[in-house]
Amino acid sequence: MSAGHDMKSILVIYTGGTVGMVRDKVSGALVPLDFSQVSKHVPELDHAGIRVEAVSFDTPIDSSDVAPKHWRSIASTVMECMDRFDGFVVLHGTDTMAYSASALSFMLEGLRKPVIFTGSQLPIGIPRTDGRENLLSALMLAAHTTDGEPTVQEVAVYFGNHLFRGNRTHKESAQSLNALISPNHPSLVEAGVEFQINHPSLWRPPVAASSGPKLHVGMRTEVAWVPLFPGMPMDWLRRALDWEDLRGLVLATFGSGNAPTSQLLKDTLREAGDRGVTMINVTQCGHGGVHPELYATSHMLAGCGVIPGRDMTTEAALTKLMHVLAQTDDPGRIRELMTANLRGELTPHRVAQTQGHGPAGAAGLEGA
Ligand code: ASP
What is the pTM of this model? Predict the structure, then answer.
């Protein structure tokens, strides 16, 4: 059926996760159901005014098992079905949803239709489940239009009454029903009595990309993610970075991007950089980002060739690195792409006009 009819057509891509799980009578553990059983628990689907079709992973999985091959499968399904549907909802476990939504945002360039991830903290078959509301609202947002155009034209996550940009999300809580947050970018939609659309926060692909969506399935996995901590044995870091296949490193630093002033750390990073390892600096903090202008302790990292990741989440930085390393081997181009705002994953750097902040007295602060 073609897109554009009054009744919107949405494809649900069911991958697994708690949303579609039931408790196994023998082991007591949660195990995945297939989508026909999931949808039986949402009778409201018949009255939502949306035509829903579903495809499912052959074996629905717990999202802890998600790997780049699953991202490829979701992205390829979206591309193959692009002309037949008005939007897509991906039912996915919450544990790695932020990674998958980030990865998909890089794999799908120039999207003009919504790809909305959702799931739940409680299985859909139990009385207090958050799964029914999440699924129904995600479907309605995938079908939502503004002035005849899809309102959402990006990879997003619907959770806890909010629609977020997918590559800005992070799973913050294993307990709260608001498990996913967007620490550094406002929500795209707040679902109250009505959907309150925050139009300025929505992503629109650059005009030059109007040739239609492009699929990039390449993901290099020769990457590492290393958080710094006080007392960290630098010798261990040196050995870890000695892995000869290593192509990229996400370094999770303190505060606004700071690291110990250790000569061994400096030498280790320099050597890795000289070997062609792309290194990117993200903060360990839950909110905010890396401001390399502020403290002398972050100047050292820049001097070793570490790229400031600005306010990217770790999930976005890691999947962006996997994506960019698969696009090119040219170090200059890698740096350019890692620094650029490809899919709204970072807040571009703007030099503030006002007085500087912090001990270094620098004036370069990120714009909002
Ligand atoms: N372990 C589950 C998963 O990520 C948790 C959830 O869905 O909330 O698949």
Answer: 0.91
